[in-house]
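Hey, I'm writing a tutorial for new members on how sequence and structure tokens pair up, and I'd like a real worked example in the thread rather than a made-up one. If someone can provide the structure for the chain below, I'll link this post from the tutorial.
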Amino acid sequence: MVKGAQALTPSEVRQLERYLDQPAEETVLVLLAEGLREGSPLLRTLQSKGMAKKVERRRDKIPLWIKERFAERGLKVDGRAAVYMAEALGNDLLALEKAVDKVAQYHQGRDAVGLEEVVDLVTPRENYQVYEIVERVGTGDADGSLRVLRKWMARGGSTTHLLRALSLHFRQLLLYHALSREGYPDAEIARRMDLGSQTWRLDRYLRRHAAVWDLESTARALFHLASVEADLKTGGLGEDTAAEFLVLGLLSLLAGTRTPRCRARGDRKEKDCK
């Protein structure tokens, strides 16, 4: 599934056209595009070699659509919860579908899914990519981390926001390692970490990420984050390069390498790299 297909260049549309002459038989290719003009090269290509369908998405109908998605999974959802999801994720139906899956996965009992539960599990759209970067870094997914990072940077994401989210996560991961080494059961770990109703984070994030980031690499990650924060505050790193250096530096810890600071700062002499 290709989102934002309206941004494809004429060269990319020609490549797509060649692919559609001999598509992979086991694959269904779906392109989502907004604001295409009649007669645009992409639309002509899809009409001639596939199928094009125009869809109108009305914001006022989305809460009902969310309720229907929960009903398909045998669950009821409180009206306020459905409205919150619609406001948090807008008319991005793919993101909403994923959010419904996530909530349904963690919901327990036969009661309706409530507002508090949804607030805990559904990240508002403006923060979504930041937490996706955190998740991909946590699992050691280098290619995915950089792919999402570059999309986020292209939209003008705040490096300070990303730094804050990564720092919080790695501090939690360090505490999780310490409590696990002490032999505390999950319920006590959740209490000491003040997770409240978010005890699901133990399995969903912390335990999985702790298998990738051991105690030593987690400590190194926090040192790297603190170093980047200091460089940002003193002007050693600029906003335009800091985000990429921030993530590359973390990933390099897993790869056993170091990202030269001169690459982010733009220094020319190799001897200046530290």
